[in-house]
Amino acid sequence: MRFLFLSYYWLPSGKASIHLPLDLIRHFVKAGHQCTVLTVEEDGFTQKEKDAVVTVPGSVDVHRTFTLEPFMLYKLFIGKKPGEQLVASETISKENTSLSHRISLWIRLNLFVPDARIGWYPFAVGKGRKLLQESNFDAIISVGPPHSVHLAARKLSKKSGVPYIPIFIDPWVDIAYYKGLQRSKCTRSFDAKLEAATVRDALFSVLITETLLRDFQIKYPPHADRMHTLYWGYDEDRFPESFEKTSSDEKVILHAGNIFDFQNPAALWKEIKRRIDQGEQYKIRFIGTVAPAVKASVKELGLEAITEYKGFLPYRDAVKEMQLADFLLVCATEPRHTPGKLFEYLRTHNRIIAFGEDNREVAQILEKSGCGRLYQYGENASDTLDAGPVTAPDTDFISSFDRSKIATQLIALIELAKKGLKK
Fold first, then answer.
1. Helix axes 360-369, 341-348, angle to 10 degrees
2. What burial class does residue 235 get, using C-beta atoms within 10 Å of its C-beta: 0-12 exposed, 13-18 middle, 19+ buried?
3. Strand ordering across the sheet containing 251-256
4. What's the pTM?
């Protein structure tokens, strides 16, 4: 079969969102399928990956188009220099009360629907139509967020008759970080119609958690039988065959990826402070962007001396840091979402500390894996800090999240759905 993938992020972007489509394509090609990628020339927001762990198969055609992004204007509006890097966790911060931030945030939430990457839509549709005219594709696969990518896939499907499959990595209209932010009733209504139309017209939809699947099935019961769960997973090829970890009295707590204001595990920082005062040794390490509220908590408790802000790291180095850490921190605030880093954490077999008020799915995955547990934000995770290394992880369960297996499942779903269309 031949597939057209729409992904806003692609190499050399260092955005974590590229790993799922990249690995699906790699495994599709291994299985004998042909893949074409449609993406942007360059996104103006993410760091660049200069040391890719894996490469795109040579048979994959990658087509790039221009896109209109508002982030350059946003930088000027909030006083950042043109070459200065935007920090994802700061752009939706509730701690920043400056007038320029509040105005820009309102504009982003209400005028860019469904998201600030909607400027790619006309260029994606234009190029996509040409690609569909030049070759016979069996399906269009879109990966979002940004969910505006799904709108382009839907439009291309309507123009060409080629079915499309949206992969929802995150919830759309009611994702957790919208809570407490000012989206107008008109914006919410329009956004909800876009989501509903995307689900209605798809060959089938892929949701990356069972909880999100149930949520969509409740919202869209006529299409419930055309929805499936495929987890984000991890790719075995990204992990070295052998790895030795040296022992040390200093325990390293690592958070990889962006951490936002609303994900601040303040009780954990207080517990670490208490233990340090009693003579224990800890190191807090952040990879990725860190929100102002999190940095403020660390500073207020006098933990700056034991805290490292490493910023963006190439994926190879980030995986190594995960393997070296004693405790891996993940904040699963959105109850319908499993953070992608969770599966890479699981693959390390290191101890995992998760925070989330009502994320039962993450709690169940951690419990079954034997690698950690989920806490409420008011808890301090002291029992996990007291625990030693994981001794008996459920490796069979963990390996079920390998993306080679997930790709096989997706191909089987496509073949089944295509047979249904021919009847």
1. 10
2. buried
3. 307-309, 282-287, 251-256, 327-331, 351-355, 372-375
4. 0.87
Cα separation values, 288 from 44, 127, 167, 278, 302, Å = 17, 33, 24, 30, 21
Which amino acid, residue 114? Answer: P
For residue 269, give the H/E element and its range: helix 266-277
CA distances from 108 to 99, 116, 185 (A): 14, 6, 15
The runs of H, that is alpha helices, within 44-98 are: 71-78, 88-91
* 278-to-155, 248, 271, 353, 369 alpha-carbon distances in Å: 61, 18, 11, 21, 32
Distance separating alpha carbons of residues 141 and 413, to the nearest angstrom: 13
Instruction: Provide the total of helices (H) and of strands (E) in the chain, helices listed first.
Output: 16, 13
Q: How many CA atoms lie within 13 A of 61 on its CB side?
A: 11
From start to end of 9-101, where are the E strands?
34-40, 61-65
Q: What is the Cα–Cα distance from 363 to 346, expressed in whole angstroms?
A: 13
Report the Cα 410 to chain-centroid distance in Å. Answer: 19
pLDDT per residue rounded down to tens, the chain (423 residues)? 999 999 999 988 878 888 999 999 999 999 999 999 999 997 765 666 665 556 788 899 999 999 988 766 655 555 666 556 555 555 555 566 676 667 777 777 777 789 889 999 999 999 999 999 999 999 999 999 999 999 999 999 999 999 999 999 998 988 766 666 678 888 889 999 999 999 999 999 999 999 999 999 999 999 999 999 999 999 998 887 666 777 788 999 999 999 998 899 999 999 999 999 999 999 999 999 999 999 999 999 999 999 999 998 988 899 999 999 999 999 998 888 899 999 999 999 999 999 998 899 999 999 999 999 999 999 999 999 999 899 999 999 999 999 999 999 999 999 999 887 765
Q: How far is CA 133 from CA 25, 161, 269, in A?
A: 21, 11, 56
Question: Could you give the residue ranges of the DSSP H alpha helices within 202-265?
Answer: 210-219
